[in-house]
Amino acid sequence: MIVKTMNRRVRFTLMWMFGLAAFLINAQTYAAATPLSTVTPVPASEQLRLQTLMFKDMGHYEPVQLKGVDGRMNLAFGVRLDESVVSAKLKLRFSYSPALLPLLSHLKLVLNGEVVDALLLPKETAGTEVEREIELDPRYFTDYNNLSIQLVGHYTMECEDAMHSSIWASISNRSSLELTLRPLALQPGLSLLPAPFFDRRDNRRLDLPFVFAAKPSLATLRAAGVVASWFGAEAAYRSARFPTFYDQMPQRNAVVFATNAERPTVLQLPEVKLPTISVRPLPSDPTIKLLIIQGQDAAQLKTAADALVLGQVVLTGDTATITKVVYDPPRKAYDVPNWIRTDRPVKFSELVGDPSELQAVGHQPSPIRVNVRLPPDLLTWNRKGVPLDLKYRYTPPAVEDNSSLTVSINNSFVQAFRLRASGKGGDKGRLMVPVLDEAMAQYEESLVIPAFQVGSNNQLQFLFALDYHKEGQCKDSIVDATRSAIDPDSTIDLSPFPHYTTMPNLALFANAGFPFTKYADLSQTAVVVSNQPAADDAELMFFMLGRLGRVTGIPALRYNLVPTSAVSAQKDFDLLVINGAGESDLLTKWGKSLPAIIDKNRRLMTPLSPSKLQPGQLYGNEDSKTKSPWSVDASTNGGLAALIGFESPLQSGRSVVAVSSSGSEVAKNVVNAIEDDGLVSRIHGDIAFVRDRQIDSFQVNNMYYVGHLPWHLRIWFFLSMHPVLLAIFGLLAGLILAFLCYWTLRGVAARRMRQ
């Protein structure tokens, strides 16, 4: 027995030694095959990350009111693929009705279907804000999570009204969920793309570093711009920034761009003979991944970048070499995936990801929301609004009551409809379609959304409010089987509206990237930078391209990237001028066309000269004689940034948008302004000065028009802006008509006399 035990120990020891030897050999082989520079390992105790998710950051912009015996709210959040939850804590702030019975009432917390806690509601703290901290079991967390807070409320021991006004609780949107997260060392692989560099489970802004050699060429930066626009489209509402590093390595996931002639020295990358895409970890920290895009030269690097954004779904393994990329034809104007079509009515089913998004449950459900992104240059002049053919279904009330459907856009009221128990569908002039189900009433309504309430980014809100029918004492049922829905075949029709708008208009650029996004692949866009952009200027360019990708929903495969010295050849393109060393010289050269010039220490603002009159100044709309030309030319040592829009000096009808500043760091104020929903609404006109969080916008230079109008509409549109001319033409038309009538009647009278 002793011998057998010793033999087992010897075998175990030998196996352990052989395993250790194999591990060391593999580690050495891996290190030799992965020639990446090492970084100082981060202690395991410092790798934990604390993430605080505020309720207001998870879509609840106001406190949530829970009403009735089964009022509830849901919180959806994700956990990144490369992280796991170590611990979680819910910090809940709430108040509740003093009428609730403590023995029967409580708040039930459910995480992914598991009841994690039930919070008692004692009388002593009723009517005041209470804060509770609840520890959540990390084993219940998955990639996508749902935390439900349900009010179980009762105000009497006997028969009760399930919708009684005394049954309520208010959940503050200052409540938060704290997650302690540990990074995971994922197996590197292209099949996970765009993760872990962008993870759809993460609702935070995307901050993805781009790494280059010490002096990247414009061709290399152009390839990176395509990738930036792709990540911007993937990030969508989260927004995306791309901190740029020249021959430096950030301590986080990053994208590396290299050719055989331009390779970061901090990474000992091998030469390649074909376009190559690979995902590799840092040997010193396997939790950090690098997406490496390489080519033998700039042309191959472009091929690799384009292959990544077009075909990442078919990439597997940790390395892929690209032999060929086949491109689609260039996009036509307004063929933008994120904009609804304007050549035909568009069904609601095309505007949502799943038909369930158009359905609601309960008597007082949350609004059904439909995002509608429009081309920003639609001309709504002389029209009442946007026609909407609305079809909806609901569980009909047992009796006629005040149940209603309220339609709003961007939180502004449009129209309300009565929900009837009979077969008549509401107000006069409305059409009822045949009932599809005896238990569900279906109606069709035609309404018009006022044009002044429609912008480029819109949200339609449909709020069903169905009265709770009370049968009488002890006869009510607490089962709520009420359902309501907007039919996916409902349509919105933009085909009557032509594409025609006044420029420059920085509001169109800041909110919808116009005019560059008119072509989704940016085939009519030239980005202008200095001959050798600094890292901060390249980062600004990547942000802008990511922003344009967010608007269009696809990568910018066909934009031009040109230095300021070669801009004269880009007369057939709209120009996006990025702040940099040569930018101020170029804008100074175009000074006569600009409303303002900003240099390091110089500020020059020059509005219209007397010969450059706005259309509204003609024919007495404005007193042009009282206007005298003025300008301000000053020297200062403070920081200032601006967005400037004007007609291209190279070609009439083409537009220029320039980001100008007194320094690269100050230019980031423009990024902050465009990214902030509260600040971007202040950007309009043809120049917007940005000083920290202060934005001042002006319209000081000539306006011009882009787009197409039929000739008859063009005449009426022109005359509508000049009432004096309209009156003169009306008078002339009346005189001509009277003259024609006179000669016609005179001829008739002469014929009668001859007879």
TrEMBL record:
Its main location: membrane. Residues 1-31 form the signal peptide. InterPro entries: Cell_synth_B (IPR003920), Cell_synthase_bac (IPR018513). Belongs to the AcsB/BcsB family. Binds the cellulose synthase activator, bis-(3'-5') cyclic diguanylic acid (c-di-GMP). Tightly associated with the cellulose synthase catalytic subunit. PANTHER family: CYCLIC DI-GMP-BINDING PROTEIN. This is Cyclic di-GMP-binding protein.
